[in-house]
Amino acid sequence: MKKSGNILIVDDNRGVLTALQLLLKPYFDKITVLSSPVTLPATLREDTWQAVLLDMNFTSGINTGNEGLYWLHEIKKQYPALPVVLFTAYADIDLAVRGIKEGATDFIVKPWDNGKLVETLLNAAQNAPASGKKTATTPASTASSMYWGESPAMQQLRMLVEKVAATDANILITGENGTGKEMLAREIHALSARHRKEMVSVDMGAITESLFESELFGHVKGAFTDAHADRPGKFEVADHSTLFLDEIGNLPYHLQAKLLTAIQRRSIVRVGSNMPVPVDIRLICATNRNLSEMADKGEFREDLLYRINTIHLEIPALRERQEDIIPLAERFITRFCKQYGKPALRLDNAAREKLMLHPWSGNIRELEHAIEKAVIICDGAFLSAGLFQLQRRNEAPEMPAASTLEDMEKQMIRHTLDKCGGNLSAVASQLGITRQTLYNKMKKYGL
């Protein structure tokens, strides 16, 4: 008998899960069980599924069925074509009928009849759209490029993201440079109900103070010399979507009040206008700085910090998740081999050891650049240790080795960054340039 693809079963009773695995083994290629729906969104993304059997109650002592309906809605938002069969007690049949009205394919009553249960699930899987075998679990949004890895810290972060992504809570993402804060923001947006519109990203460190209000809030025609037409700001563009403010710690103190006002009032006023424009956004901010310490020093508004920090997500540094270094490197190798038309390359043992021992002060971004360079210059079938010229942060750059003025400038900025512990204001002061100029040069050189 031909089997009917993959089925995912979600029920908090492990005895029920074991019994269903044994019963359904002859009928499905793959049977995956979850005792909690918390990791349901992540599990759905890991494979293609032909049916989901979803219990309606998970919290002990609560039998309203609302949990099941909530997760039904979450599945249908991301995978509209995926058949969902509800698993319910006899007393909750009315709720199950409501679930069918809201997108479920069918329901099964506990205690179940084996023959009826098998028939219901097979019909659900086989009656999926013809393309369902491949697309039933293709999200409505773009597929995620987020790599979670296997480290406990990242798995814990992943579970938290799965919980908060579906809400509209404001999120603050912190972590060192190069850890992937914007990628995490995009993952959260992709998992949210706002995924149908593009996330709007703003680099706060790259916006000049004079253009801050125009960029974020927009302007009307004639508001200033070059305002030749009305122009919406980032808040309006992100209406009913997610607004991502990167490097929020670089926003000057006197401009923070204007941002706070827009967040509190849920409306903006374009430059040159007096008319408030309501906006519905989900706000995600990111920084590599300690905003609490900045608030204590009077460098960041405490009331703004409370507003943007409903949920705090900390991305661990790459050196704190060593088990993810080689898998990440291999992903980059595959990508750059395709990009540069190279045959499939592999790391030799010495190269693996070298990558594992390096502290990766630049985190994932530094690893990505190192792999790209190695793939470009590699002539053999293996990437050897000699192809990776890795410099530790505490090693002072050899200034005479620079061959151009740009190389010297890059090395001087990197050296001063190390010396000042990443404090951009101190770095700019020592180099005798403005913080904006410093930020532009760091962008240019990938620092």
List the defining traits of the structure above.
alpha/beta, Rossmann fold, Helicase, Ruva Protein, domain 3, five-stranded parallel beta sheet, 15% strand, globular
- Strand fraction equals 5-15%
Largest sheet, if any? 5 strands, parallel
Which segments are poorly predicted (pLDDT under 50) over 5 or more consecutive residues? 130-135, 138-143, 396-400
The CATH superfamily of the largest domain appears as: P-loop containing nucleotide triphosphate hydrolases
Number of domains: 4
What is the alpha-carbon Rg in Å? 26 Å
Share of helix, binned: 40-55%
Q: What integer is the average pLDDT?
A: 85
Which structural class do the helices and strands define?
A: alpha/beta
CATH topology category name of the largest domain: Rossmann fold
3D structure, described in words:
- By secondary structure, the protein is an alpha/beta fold.
- 42% of the residues lie in helices and 15% in strands.
- The chain has helices at 14-24, 40-45, 66-78, 93-101, 114-126, 132-135, 152-164, 181-191, 212-217, 234-237, 253-265, 291-296, 302-308, 325-339, 349-357, 363-377, 405-419, 424-431, 435-445, and strands at 6-10, 30-34, 51-55, 84-89, 106-110, 171-174, 200-203, 218-219, 231-232, 241-246, 267-269, 276-278, 281-287, 311-314, 346-347, 382-383.
- The strands form five sheets. A five-stranded parallel β-sheet has the order 2-1-3-4-5, with helices on both faces.
- Helix 4 links the parallel strand 4 and strand 5.
- The radius of gyration is 26 Å and the shape is globular.
- The model is unreliable at 130-135, 138-143 and 396-400 (pLDDT under 50).
